[in-house]
Amino acid sequence: MMRQLRESTKFIMVIVAIAFVGLMVFEWGMDFSGQTATGGQPTDLGRVNGAEVTVDAYQRQYQILLEQAQQSSPGGLSDDELERIEQQAWDDVVNLTLLQEEARDREIEISDVELVEYIKFNPPPDMVNLPAFQSEGRFDLQKYQQALSDPALSQTWREYERQMRQTLPILRLQEQVVAGVTVTEAELRKAYLDRNERARIAYLYLDPERLVPESEVQVTDEDVRSFYEESKEEYRRAESADVRYVSFRPEVVGADSARVAALADSLAGEAREEDADFAALAEDHSDDAITAQRGGDLGWIRPEAMTPAIAEVLRTGEPGEVVGPVRSPFGWHVLKIEDRQTQEGQTRVRARQILLAIEPSSEARQAAREAARAFAQAAGGEQGAFDSAAAEHGLEVHDPPVFEKGIVVPGLGPAPMLTAFVFENPVGSISGPLEQDGDLYVVRVDRRYPAGYVAFERVAPRIRAELVRRERLERTRAIGSEITDVVRQRGLEGAAERYGLEVRTTDWFNRTNNIPGVGSGTPVAGAAFGLAEGQTAGPIETERGLYFLRVLEKDPVDPQAYEQAKPELMAQIRREKMQRMFTTWFEGLKERAEVVDNRALLLGT
Questions:
Q1: Sign of the Cα pseudo-torsion (327, 353, 302, 540, in order)
Q2: Which of 28, 206, 339, 518 would disulfide-bridge 546, Cβ 3.0–4.6 Å?
Q3: What span, in angstroms and rounded, lies between the C-alpha atoms of 292 and 352?
């Protein structure tokens, strides 16, 4: 075993370096990674509250991020990707310096005994997968602890010890910041009820657009101007821009799917082994970030609500069975059927999943980049060339609403490279390929607007539409008052018959579901859970209009199931609260920090 481990020493050193980044991903999700200076004469690359940020620290972190990116993109990295790595390395060392200085200010120290105990029972995360530390396919702590005393690996352990001396005080700082986080019984019960109590309702929907034709609503120019002047502060904007863009998505081919299918098949086999922990496999491997945090838990679902291939295995699989891999538009799925129940002829299945997304190859990404470059060259001619080139290439031109500097791009979300290009280049500029979430974009800057109030002419149509919406809703309220008496006397069906409306029914929902025809997060769900079966309520106002409802059925929570779920649910809610608290605290720390960035002077970046 020791010979095999010594042969792996070089690989272990890489893991130890990368593990430093991994260890900064705190237990409940925050990610503030970086390195500090070691060896050599420190160079003042920047300062954080007066504390030095060295070139050595920055370059070490840059090299770690670069190696990680190169492993993910064997076809090579673009200039944009390299720039993003440079910025991430800088952000990492700044964040780490902030946390280290805060730990020093709080006089947080780690003793040698604490350090030794931590290292003894906490190997670098990726090291646990090395064959040298495996016994019967599982990590063997005893083998790892034996390796700690191997003289041939002394350099490896010295590096790990150095990193842990820097990291553990920050973990202790984290514990101090969130030490007071607790979960009350009320919070716990509310969370459980929100997720598990169910109801079905019948409802009448009073749609303002149907009940009040726009032709009957009169909004004058004076009304629009008056609203603008009275609400003018709402139309104060930072520097903003109007753009058009086209997108290029790397093509996924059969070989990409086959590669992921093979991995999914391997995971399915592992999940079928005796004593396999499916939830742990989902947490480690699933590309569905939301369900992965819950061990792949999909909750109770109706098979027919899923894609056909998944619906089929959910209908035919038996509780306890691992099924798949199954292909869907989202990738390859491995599923575990945990339970099944049938109520009133409707089948619901409790299941977990591991989803492996199918990513395009490096060749496909390069082809998309070359297509984007070719388009950018063709679109850079006279006025109108952008649209002409898009038509010639069969591309859709996207024209998002005007957006402010520092605000998300409508339809794209946070897009820092695109935003930087738009606000650092003159009107008429056309970008090269800009990457965002795996896709490539070519953008044209059509107009730029200075900071100040948005011109009345630009917002007048939107104001007019809002005034029409308000008038329609006001008239619908009056109609709702009339209907209220009829509902009390004749019920929803009688009111529907009299006013030419339709009584609709819902499927089962909880407080957090999107209710078809109603929406999510509306007062309708709250009202439904406040009523007993057969009771009626309304009118209930939402952004969409007014609702009257009657509770058809309620499925209360099982007190015994609640007691069983409490420990896991409490841990989950506490993690979420700790993450929010630490995020808020750290954002405040960064806002108060004085950061000096000398990269442009020393490195030319």
A1: negative
A2: 206
A3: 9
Residue 27 CB burial class (10 angstroms; 0-12, 13-18, ≥19): exposed
Strands (E), 410-495: 434-436, 439-449, 452-453
**Which amino acid is located at 206 in the chain?**
L
Question: Which single residue is written with the structure tokens 């795996």?
Answer: 438
**Structural tokens at position 80:** 């944009």
Q: CB within 8 A of 164, min separation 6: which ones?
A: 23, 115, 118, 119
**Closest-CA residue to 569 (of 291, 29, 292, 195):** 195
Closest by CA position to 46, among listed 98, 83, 81, 82: 98
pLDDT of residue 601: 64
Res 579: pLDDT:
85
Other C-beta atoms lying within 10 Å of the C-beta of residue 200: 17
CB 507 within 8 A of CB 200: yes
In one letter, which amino acid is 344?
E
Q: What distances in angstroms separate CA 208 from CA 132, 446, 471, 588, one per listed residue? A: 69, 37, 9, 44
Q: Which of 74, 178, 67 is nearest to 126 (CA)?
A: 67
* Angstrom distance (rounded) from CA 276 to CA 284: 13
DSSP reduced 3-state for 64: helix
Q: What is the pLDDT of residues 491-541, one digit of tens each?
A: 888 888 888 888 888 888 888 777 877 877 788 888 888 888 888 888 888
pTM over cut 0.85: no
Transcribe 134-192 into DSSP letters: EETTEE-HHHHHHHTT-GGGHHHHHHHHHHHHHHHHHHHHHHHHTTT----HHHHHHHH
Cis peptide before 308 (omega within 30 of 0): no
What letter would DSSP give residue 31? B
E strand intervals along 318-473: 322-328, 331-343, 346-356, 403-404, 434-436, 439-449, 452-453
Percent of the chain with pLDDT over 70: 89
The bridge status of strand 236-237 relative to strand 434-436 is unpaired
| Most confidently modeled range among 31-40, 95-104, 152-161, 410-419 | 95-104
Using the predicted structure, report yes or no on whether residue 20 has a pLDDT greater than 60. no
Closest CA to 447 of 243, 244, 246: 243
First to last CA, the chain: 46
Specify the DSSP class assigned to residue 526: H
Q: What is the pLDDT of residue 602?
A: 61
Cα separation, 506 vs 516, in Å, equals: 7
